[in-house]
Design brief:
The protein is an alpha/beta fold. The chain has helices at 3-15, 26-33, 37-49, 67-70, 84-99, 115-118, 137-144, 169-182, 198-213, 232-245, 260-272, 306-322; strands spanning 53-56, 60-63, 73-79, 103-109, 126-129, 150-153, 164-167, 188-192, 220-223, 254-257, 282-287, 300-303, 330-333, 336-338. The chain is built from twelve helices and 14 strands. The chain has a six-stranded parallel β-sheet with strand order 4-3-5-6-7-13. The protein has a six-stranded mixed β-sheet with strand order 9-8-10-11-12-14, with helices on both faces. It starts with a helix and ends in a 6-residue tail after the last strand.
């Protein structure tokens, strides 16, 4: 048996030992697995390099302390873009992680070829990626090869061997549709100022599915990303202006906005054309960012469980550091409905 084949065998042995437990001697391991001394030593050396074993000179080899004890510094890698949404999430993550007694280092990564230069691999014990939907297949493969515990947030990649934590966006879309329809708001349109991505697609798909079950079909979807030129705010304003001129606003009960940012732009444009929210039209968003409660009127929104993102990421990191998980963990968390005054 070669050392790389022996490695998983010793990992299974370590799972039976408590943190800090002593490993059998090299001679006993040779007898147990029927291999040579050099094979044992090569496997043990790799396990030490991976942080799973520690050697005390003259005393023996021991299983490393628990994952929680071995994780002192966690890096948070976020896209190098200006985004209030990302800043808010980083703040929530930082608060939750600091409560767990770990130090944080925040890194900004660029997409494309520069990405690999920005990804830290030294000076931290674990790494959390945020908004990794922006990364390519090759980028994700490279990230998955980093030899420290790693979790991707706001991500679901069933085709990769990566640890991920994400919100069940389809369930959130269904939740928004159910709430509007329960208020007898059935003439609904969908608005997005977000670039196409799986999260947006899932939210819309969930909304349309529930609406279809309720007998509501042919819902119009307007995505500013599909319209060239102008800013998102200008596109929404032009869209509202055209809808007002064509009399479509009067035939609309509510808008489902796939993000709170989409809702901000919409409410601003509706006010400009003297359309009152929620008296004339109801609006529901998605994300429940901190600004939602400060809007006029305060925005009803589907809340993403950012605090749970952090808790689940920590659980995965500690378990990976312990060696107690051997397959990728892909967690999807349930969103919740936050009711405010933007829906009548």
């Amino acid at each position: 048996m070669k050392s790389h084949l022996l490695y998983p065998e010793i990992i299974e042995l370590l799972k039976k030992l408590p943190p800090g437990g002593k490993l059998p001697s090299v001679r006993k391991l040779m007898q147990k697995y029927g291999v040579s001394q050099i094979t044992i030593e090569n496997a043990l050396r790799q396990l030490k390099e991976d942080g799973k074993l520690v050697t005390q000179v003259g005393d023996g080899t021991y299983k490393s302390l628990s994952g929680r004890d071995s994780i002192k510094i966690i890096g948070i890698a976020v896209p190098a873009v200006n985004s209030t949404w990302i800043d808010n999430i980083v703040t929530e993550l930082s608060t939750k992680l600091e409560e767990s007694g770990v130090q944080l280092k925040i890194f900004r990564y660029r997409t494309g070829k520069a990405y690999r230069e920005d990804v830290p691999s030294k000076g931290i014990d674990a790494l959390i990626f945020l908004n990794s939907r922006l990364l390519s297949h090759d980028d994700l493969t490279f990230a998955g090869e980093i030899n420290i515990p790693c979790v991707f947030l706001n991500s679901t990649f069933s085709w990769t061997k990566l640890n991920t934590v994400d919100t069940d966006n389809e369930a959130g879309g269904e939740m928004a549709a159910e709430f509007l329809i329960s208020r007898n708001l059935k003439r609904i349109r969908i608005l997005s100022v977000e670039p196409p991505c799986p999260a947006v697609d899932e939210r819309i798909r969930g909304f349309l599915r529930y609406a279809s079950y309720s007998g509501i079909k042919d819902i119009e979807i307007f995505n500013t990303a599909e319209v060239p030129g102008f800013s998102s705010n200008e596109k929404v304003e032009k869209y509202v202006a055209l809808s007002v001129r064509q009399g479509l606003i009067g035939n609309t009960d509510a808008f489902f906005c796939v993000s709170d940012s989409s809702a901000y732009h919409l409410i601003k444009s509706l006010k400009k054309f003297c359309v009152k929210v929620p008296d004339d039209i109801s609006v529901i968003g998605f994300d429940d960012s901190p600004e939602s409660a400060k809007l006029s009127p305060p925005l009803t929104s589907i809340r993403q469980p950012y605090d749970q993102w952090a808790s689940e990421a920590l659980k995965i990191i500690f378990a990976q550091a312990d060696g107690s998980i051997s397959v990728p963990v892909q967690k999807r968390l349930s969103p919740s409905l936050i009711i405010r005054q933007s829906v009548k």
